[in-house]
Amino acid sequence: DSGVTQTPKHLITATGQRVTLRCSPRSGDLSVYWYQQSLDQGLQFLIQYYNGEERAKGNILERFSAQQFPDLHSELNLSSLELGDSALYFCASSERVTSYNEQFFGPGTRLTVL
Amino acid sequence: AQSVTQPDIHITVSEGASLELRCNYSYGATPYLFWYVQSPGQGLQLLLKYFSGDTLVQGIKGFEAEFKRSQSSFNLRKPSVHWSDAAEYFCAVGAAAGNKLTFGGGTRVLVKP
Questions:
Q1: Contact in structure between A22 and A75 (CB atoms under 8 Å)
Q2: How far is Cα B65 from Cα B113, in angstroms, rounded to an integer?
Q3: Torsion sign over Cα A95, A96, A102, A107
C-alpha cells in the first residue's frame, strides 16, 4: 500500500459525459501528479500540482482539467468524453516538487467510455 | 525532449533463471533514472533509482540496475526470478531540475514454472 488513495476504482460512462476522479496523496506529500495509461499511448504524464498550484503540464487535453485543494487532495475532471479516453488514470504523490523525490502511485481509476 | 525505449515488449523466463530488461534513454543532461514494477491490478511501485555516483544500483526484491552513460542504457537485472516477479516493468527518466517522469512502453515478464 503506497498510501495514495484514488476513487472510484472503476468508472463506466457514456460518450459526451463528464467525470471527476479523486486522489488523496500520502500524508505529508505536497506534490500530486496525474498520469494516463492506455494501450496505444502507454503511460503518459498529464499534469502536476504542488501545494495547490499547477507546476507542470504534459499531454493533457483541453477537455481535461485538474485542481489541488487546500487539504492537498486533487481532482481530475474529464469532460466531453470520447471512446479514446478509456484508460487507467493514476495519481502519484511526492514530498516535494522535483523528480529527485520518489513518486508514490495510487492503484488507479479505470475509466471505460461506452 | 527526453524519451525512453524498452525494446522488449514481452519476455518469458523460467523460474530460477536470470532476467535482464533493457532500457535506453534519450536526454541531453544527466538523467534521473527509475525502474517501476506494476503487478496486475496494482499501481506502480519503485524498484530502484539512479541519480549519481555508483553506476550499479541495488533495489528492492533483489533487483539491480546498471547505468551506462556511453550506451545511454539503464538495464534491470535479477539473478534468479521468482513466480511473483511476473509483472510489467517500466523504465522512466526524469529531468534533474524538473518534475515529470517520461516512461518507456513497458516490458511484460512472464515466469514459467
A1: yes
A2: 25
A3: positive
Using a CB–CB cutoff of 8 Å, tell me whether B70 touches chain A: no
**Mutant choice from B88, B100, B103, B107 vs A, greatest count of A C-beta within 10 A:** B100
pLDDT surpassing 70 at residue B98: no
Q: Chain A residue with minimal CA distance to B44? A: A105
Instruction: Please state whether beta strands B101-103 and B107-112 pair in parallel, antiparallel, or not at all (unpaired).
Output: unpaired
Distance from CA of A28 to the nearest CA of B (A): 18
Chain A hits for B42, CB-CB cut-off 8 Å, are 107
Q: Grid cell 504524464 — which residue?
A: A45
Task: Provide the pLDDT for residue A59.
Answer: 83
Residue B8 phi/psi, 5-degree rounding, is -100, 120
User: CA A54, CA A67: separation in Å to the nearest integer?
Assistant: 8
Cβ atoms of A103 and A33 closer than 8 Å: yes
- Going by the DSSP 8-state scheme, the letter that residue A107 receives in this structure is -
Q: In whole angstroms, what is the distance from residue B12 CA to residue A42 CA?
A: 21
With 80 as the cut, is the pLDDT of residue A40 above it?
yes
Of B41, B42, B100, the CB nearest to A45: B100
- DSSP codes joined into one string, chain B: --EEE---SEEEEETTS-EEE--EEE-SSPEEEEEEEE-TT--EEEEEEE-SS-SEEE-GGG-EEEEEGGGTEEEEEESS--GGG-EEEEEEEEETT---EEE---EEEEEE-
pLDDT per position as a tens digit, B51-62: 888 889 999 999
